[in-house]
Amino acid sequence: MRLGILLALLACVSASPADAETLVPPGNRNLEQPPIPGASARRTGAGRTTFEAKYAKIVQLLRSDGTLRAKIRRVAERYDLDPIHMIGAIVGEHTYNVDAYDHLQTYYVKAVSYLKSSLTFSYQGESLDDFIKRPEFATCADMADSYALWSCREAVWERSFRGLTVDGTSFPDDRFSAVFLQPFFAGQTFGIGQLNPLTALQMSDLVHQISGLPKIDHRDPQRVYRAIMDPDITLDYVAATIRKSIDVYAEIAGFDISGNPGLTATLYNLGNPVARAAKLAAENALRRKKGLEPRLPEENYYGWHVNEKLDELEALAVES
Length: 320
Description:
By secondary structure, the protein is mainly alpha-helical. It has 16 helices and 6 strands. The protein has one domain (3-318). Strands 1-6 form a two-stranded parallel sheet.
């Protein structure tokens, strides 16, 4: 998507959904699970485990920890979500991404270790703070909301730096977050919500607005990592990410996806809901011109699995 179009869309996205959206019904649109990416299969194989075993492990963690389930319900209520959306996202991440720890306490221990670490956000000696002061990012300067601001910066990276040589520096053909915001494990995600630092920075304002938690800043990497590692904080970021996807699809694509956890899980997995909603809206505008019914949003392999296991996961959402 061209940067100007993206910026216009970001400017029009509000914190609450528009009226008169088309309700997307529950369940999967695909009869069979869409293909699972090879990277997910390789990661799971390298860990000498299976998707089924990873799914059982995260479900067991949720089932055995009533405190965690209660935290999820409280946070979901703050963000006007059914807790099944948070459970679906967490289960999907630990099934197809990184295996869950056996105990929630391990996540707290890991969070403390990151606070004590010497993290820096930089690439080849150039700090992220200096990098985003380059003139290419001037178009983002007036973005007041953290979601719009960091989405704009990500778009500038994709257009002007990714895979290119600029002012004598060769930049990798990789995601903005992997290059500048993940110094230890580039490309990986962390914590019970398996969030990456860029997502946390995008959600900072919404989390502050709804939960009152302090805003995070790219100049304090340790606090950014605490936000994605500490369960008492990261659950708010999980909820905010899901809330934003629901609102964006209502605002841009005209679909209410709040009754389909597989779709919110899909967007949690894929990211970039603004671009995806805009693409679907453009496709459906053409379909309407041709007299065709609009195409409903569809789940990917990850969301398909969440919908397939919905009865079991919904039981976790209501257990006290």
